[in-house]
Write a structure and sequence with these properties.
5-stranded antiparallel sheet, signal
Length: about 250
C-alpha cells in the first residue's frame, strides 16, 4: 500500500504505542525474503506479478501476487522450499479473509483481508506447523498495539471493529444488552451512537427509517487471548466509538 508520509505522521509513529513503528517490532522479521518476477500480463501491463517467499526458521510463507485485489495464492511451506509458483507439499491457504500476508509471530501466521469492511481490517491467524485456521477478527487501523506469542499461546492487544446484529441508536437498551453479552463491554463502556446515525440520516434523509435500523459498528480496545484451541476476548480500558456500517 503506497502512502504519502508527512512530518506529522512520522512524529506520530514514534509517539503512538499503536503506530506503525510498534507494528514493525511486533511481528518477527524473516530471515530472508525471496522475490521472483513473473511474466507480465498483456491484459494488465501495469501490474508487476511476483512471487514473494518470506523465510522463517521453521517455515516459509509464499505469496503469489498478480497485481490484482488479493493474492492469487498464499501457502505455507518448509523453510528451505524453492520459491516457485507451484510447489510440492505446500499448504494452500484457501480463505476468503486471507488476502495478503500480514506478518508472523512465533508459530502464528497472520493474513489480512484484501479490502476493509465496516471501517476495519479483517484478519485471520493460522498455525504454521499444521496449517490450521485458529481465529479471525477485525482491526481498527493497520497495527496491533502488542503481540505476545509462545508455544501454542497468542495474545493480541488492538482496537477491535465489532459489527453488532442490532442498532444501538434504534433499539437502545435491548441492543446494548446483546452487545454486552457478545463483547463483555459494560453498559458504561458502550458508545453513544447518536452522532454517526444523525449524520448519516442528514446525508440521506429520504432513507432515515432504514438508516436508524442499520447494525451498529462498535470500535473498542480489546485483549484477545488464544490457547489450546480456545479464544477469549477481554475489553480493555479506553474509549469506544460507534459507526454506521459501510
Amino acid at each position: 500500500m503506497k502512502r504519502t508520509v508527512t512530518a506529522s505522521v512520522i512524529v506520530a509513529a514514534f509517539v503512538s504505542f499503536a503506530g506503525a513503528s510498534a507494528n514493525a517490532v511486533a511481528f518477527d522479521k524473516p530471515i530472508k525474503v525471496d522475490v521472483v518476477a513473473l511474466p507480465k500480463d498483456e491484459l494488465n501491463p501495469d501490474a508487476k506479478p511476483t512471487i514473494t517467499c518470506s523465510r522463517y526458521p521453521a517455515f516459509m510463507v509464499k505469496e503469489v501476487d498478480f497485481g490484482e485485489v488479493g493474492a492469487e495464492k498464499l501457502a505455507l511451506l518448509a523453510a528451505d522450499a524453492p520459491c516457485e509458483r507451484t510447489s510440492e507439499r505446500e499448504r494452500v491457504i484457501a480463505d476468503d479473509t486471507a488476502g495478503y500476508l500480514m506478518g508472523v509471530s512465533g508459530g502464528f501466521v497472520f493474513f489480512r483481508a484484501a479490502d476493509g469492511w465496516n471501517g476495519g481490517l479483517p484478519f485471520v491467524v493460522y498455525d504454521a506447523a499444521t496449517g490450521e485456521r485458529l481465529l479471525d477478527d477485525s482491526l481498527d487501523g493497520d497495527d496491533f498495539a502488542a503481540i505476545r506469542s509462545g508455544k501454542g499461546e497468542l495474545t493480541l492487544d488492538f482496537r477491535r471493529v465489532y459489527t453488532a446484529s442490532c442498532s444501538l441508536y434504534h433499539e437502545g437498551a435491548g441492543c446494548a444488552k446483546a452487545i454486552a453479552a457478545e463483547t463483555g463491554l459494560a453498559p458504561k463502556q458502550l458508545p453513544d451512537c447518536a452522532a454517526p446515525y444523525k449524520a448519516e440520516i442528514k446525508r440521506s434523509p429520504d432513507h432515515a427509517s432504514e438508516i436508524e435500523k442499520l447494525p451498529s459498528v462498535v470500535v473498542y480496545p480489546v485483549e484477545l487471548a488464544y490457547a489450546a484451541g480456545d479464544t477469549a476476548r477481554r475489553p480493555m480500558d479506553g474509549p469506544a466509538t460507534c459507526r454506521t456500517p459501510d
